[in-house]
């Protein structure tokens, strides 16, 4: 039995359905992130899915220089520089549908960009997306490497994946998508810019229907702290 | 909607097989029908398209079932990890793929099945002998026959 947070829950679901993301300001800032996530939907337990990864269910995201961490993640690769637009865990066979970013220590000058995939339709036709194939940069469990479609379908929902760090384009269609998504000027003109400025600010993103990225971080904003949780479902 | 999450795909999944057929058919399309590579890549594309069609019904139909030890292939098709590295899971040979498709889907009729089987014979001749099988097949057009089914 999950707890229902009154009043704003209907707004949250409506905005997610309309825009594929929802931004909430100072939302239940006194509550724990895991409690909020469990009240909203089904939390993905990464520890169960990938026991050897040591990735906790609630992940703490703090900026750091790339020399300080691994090259196997965004912070390790890009450090304080801008994160390119991507979907999370795009190299998984079926990535988590939603994720929640919750601000614990804000920084008003850092922008989280959100780009609904529908924006891509205006410059690339559906046939390009349907044909686009990628491979994970690294082999997965059991040393198996399989092709992945950029566009995948479950039930009546089309999902989209993209990640220039963890995926490698394998055909012309995928390279066309990669070219568009490397056009920073175009992305900035089409993406929504959000700021997680205060403790309790929160954004929930439909990871199948939106790309996201982050602006660069100045050295005096390195105390920014977000918490991230993946969800497979948002309760209606 | 509660959406399933899968970290790793399956080698015999419809998705993985279909993606591979798309990649091979794109190789085919980069040649003209007057080049031997056109027929060669079409054969590889056709095999994976047929396997994807069978996996669409169920990956279980890709299981090789020649003897009692082949239960390990069945276990793998059903999502179990391979029981031993010494004997990796083995799927059915491509001619049996066409046979099973024909038996399960009447639209995959005798004419299409025969065409696919003949095309695989050409492929086998190409890759298992010194015969330039696809060089002899220049000008061949794969499109009208199997496309009607797939």
Question: Can you walk me through this structure?
Answer:
The complex is a heterodimer of chains A (236) and B (150). With 236 residues, chain A is of the alpha+beta class. Chain A has a domain of 162 residues: 4-Layer Sandwich (Double-stranded beta-helix). In chain A, 22% of the residues lie in helices and 28% in strands. Chain A has 7 helices and 15 strands. In chain A, the strands form 4 sheets. In chain A, strands 1, 2, 3, 5, 13 and 15 form a 6-stranded antiparallel β-sheet that branches. Chain A is globular and about 50 Å long. In chain A, 37% of the residues are buried. Chain B has 150 residues and is mostly helical. Chain B has 6 helices and no strands. The mean pLDDT of chain B is 89. In chain B, helix 4 runs antiparallel to helix 5. Chain B has one domain. The chains are: A alpha+beta (236), B mainly alpha (150). The interface between A and B is medium-sized, with 31 and 21 residues.
What is the CATH architecture term of the domain at 8-117 and 183-234 in chain A?
Answer: 4-Layer Sandwich
Would you report the number of β strands of chain A?
15
Integer count of domains of chain B: 1
Query: Which strand-content bin applies to the residues of chain B?
Result: under 5%
CATH superfamily of the domain at 8-117 and 183-234 in chain A: Clavaminate synthase-like
What is the number of helices of chain B?
A: 6
* SS-based class of chain B: mainly alpha
Q: Structural class from helices and strands of chain A?
A: alpha+beta
Approximate shape of chain A: globular
